Amino acid sequence: MTAPLIAVDDLTIDYGRQPAACHRAVDGVSFDIRPGEVLGLAGESGSGKSTVAYALLARRRPGSRIVSGRILFEGEDILPLPERQVRLLRGGRIGFVPQNPATSLTPSMPVGRQIVETIEIHGVARGAAARRLAEDLLARVHLPEPQALARRYPHQLSGGQQQRVLIAMALACRPRLLVLDEPTTGLDVTTQAQILTLLADIRAEFATAMLYVSHDLAALGRLADRIAVMKDGRLVEIGPTASIVGSPRQPYTRVLLAALPDLDRPPAGVTDDAAKRNGGEGKPLLEIDGLVAAYRGEGLSAIWRRPPPTVRDVSFSIRRGETFALIGESGSGKSTIARAILGLTPHRRGGVRFDGRDLPADARRWQGEWRRRIQIVFQNPDASLNPRHSVAAILGRPLERFFGLRGRDRRLRAAELLESVRLDPAFLDRRPDQLSGGQRQRVAIARALAAEPEVLICDEVLSALDVSVQAEILALLRTLQAERHLTYLFISHDLAVVRWFAQSVGVLHRGEFCALGPVEEVFSPPHHPYTARLLAAVPRISAPDDNAGRPAKAWFGGPARASSTV
Amino acid sequence: MTLLLSAAPRNIGRRPSLTGGFAALLLAAFFAIAIAGPWLVPFDPAAIGAGMPFEPPSWQHPFGTDNFGRDVFSRVVIGTRQALATGLAATGLAVIVGTALGLWLAHRRGIVDEIVARILDVLISMPPLIMALLAVSVFGSNPALVVLTVAVLFAPRVARVVRAAALTVVTEDYVTAALLRGETTLAIVLRELLPNVAGTVFVEFSIRTGYAIVMIGSLSFLGFGSPPPTPEWGLMINEGYAAVNASFWPVLAPTAAMALLVIAVNLFTDDVSRLIGHSGPVEARR
User: Fold this and answer.
1) Do domains A1-93+176-258 and A272-386+453-536 have the same CATH topology?
2) Which of A15, A59, A379 sits opposite B7 (nearest CB)?
3) In sequence order, what are the residues at sequence separation of 6 or more whose Cβ sits closer than 8 angstroms to the Cβ of residue B56?
4) Which of B3, B4, B121 to mutate to probe the A interface, most A CBs <10 Å?
5) Which tens digit of pLDDT belongs to each residue from B226-251?
6) Does any CB of chain A come closer than 8 Å to the CB of residue B114?
7) CATH classification of B77-276 is 3.90.650.10, yes or no?
8) Is the pTM of this model over 0.90?
């Protein structure tokens, strides 16, 4: 066995200054990474995994304090190093790829120039040589036409291309170790698959060791040699990918694995029951006919220039009690359809009929009853709840407007609503920032339920949440549907969830349906090529016996090789 | 990860600074003097011949006397009330009008917002003191009119800042949810937008107060404001500067009072905006 490239020894990190009020984010974590090895670091929000990743860069997150422990990189403890030396190390021998590519690139500088800057700061090359090296790096991360691309600004690139640029930047100094903090979390499935393939190529070509931090065990399973699982700041399990994924010893790892939506088996708590097959009943409740919609333009030019439609000629209908899913990559027009139905987009064309009546194209002209009967739950509970209002005020407002409830009645009803989304009524007096992400999303659902709607539009309601929380919210939506006979328009980019949750599905590609029909039909072959691409990109965790006879590397399923242009 | 960040104490190292605390004390003192002024002063501020003209500071006249032998200390103390009252009134009016306009524009968006926002830009680009001089020369000069003029000049500036702050709020989903509930414009502006830009509005109010005090002082110095013998700081400087060779105290005292008040307001604002603002990531400091 070779000596470890980096060894983390009994690392403990606290948040907060006063010993009484501090919060232990990382508690006695030890692990090592050998040269050329990929270690996956899994865990949910708040498990301390990002804090560990930052510590490997000898970087403290704001408000944190290293209590004890050492981090030996090539035998040298990097924590006591002075800032000057740490800067040389960071971006030099240790590369870093952050979670959000959009905020990690300088918007006012061409991307090529930003890579050249990194190269020059670390003294690898200067001037023309540095430019050539930058273009070479862009080519190596499989970006098309590197010379032209180097002159573009970050906003002229897609999310996947931005992430490739950041990977190229991290590789600029041929690091021995690459720290990746949730590098694919903001990207959609097909882009994620391509980035994972790229990282596997890089590892094969440069023999770079990696620490890959992710909450997504399925993604880790495709890349990592070993996986470490963190919970509440402690390392609960570490071992070869095959044994962690195949036969996890810790209950928590099993919970994480069970919560993963899987195309091949229904998630925990969701049974593939017969009622689901029957779907809705009777006449369509919501009919969309030839919908064309665009986003609102920005600035003065919006006066004379209409933005091109993001949704073109989309038609579908949903029966009462049915769940209809819209799937597609980001930018395919899923959310625009939701907003157009609600009358939130300008210049909507085509018909939207609800219970046999035409809904006006402008939400301001809706009648009170329509407003009550159709409700929406948004993607990000941080943005959908007013941070200045208490939960009681958030839930009380629709009760007051739709049912005229006031005072004690209103508060009692709000408490009931919290109970119906399985939250403690004591939360009434909290503000959103005192709740966790999953709790906030439950409050957002409760606010929609306050109106006693018939149709609930769920716009990516799971994507901002942890996997285990996702499973809980999904189970809640399932129960509520049964209790209240709700009709769902369920927008998601997660095919595995849709596969088990919806009866009908529309697959959107560039604002048009490329497949539409019952879930079984759309998800079983023969597929439309685009659907096939989406399905292939879903990372899967296979049961061990499925892999008998295959080489050890076959723990990761998914695509053989995704095309390399994003 | 997000959970961790929010669990971490948010206001680490965010305590009122020493200068901020000092500024707050100073401001409190100014307010106390403004209220209790008439009971504090030894002389009637308008009384001619309280001493000999141009007396140097003494126990009887701490800041000396002016050309009419009036007690400069009494005049400065009594003038505090008007300086604070006109400054706060002008700023208060400007902030109320500007905030209402800014929030409405941000909520309205579209063509109306774009056009009005450009008009505001044009108004802001005009030099305020010259515009104020123009207005008071046309409409005459009395304290109420000066307050109104300054308020009208400051309102577009406040509107612009508040609009910019509110534009990041109107795109939040809770505003969309309110819109879908059929809330009125007034309810959306008051319930959803205003609480989320309250910090910006407060900072704007305190910054503008400093400017307003200086501007009203300047107008009064130029002769637009209260008529003599009102103990107004700007007017006192005007009356005293011709005889500055005889005694500089009638000029220095009101100047220092105004400077001290504006500095106190600014330092206080700096500290408050630091306390309610957001700090960037902290690099490792070991």
Assistant:
1) yes
2) A15
3) B64, B247, B249
4) B4
5) 888 888 898 889 888 888 888 888 88
6) yes
7) no
8) no
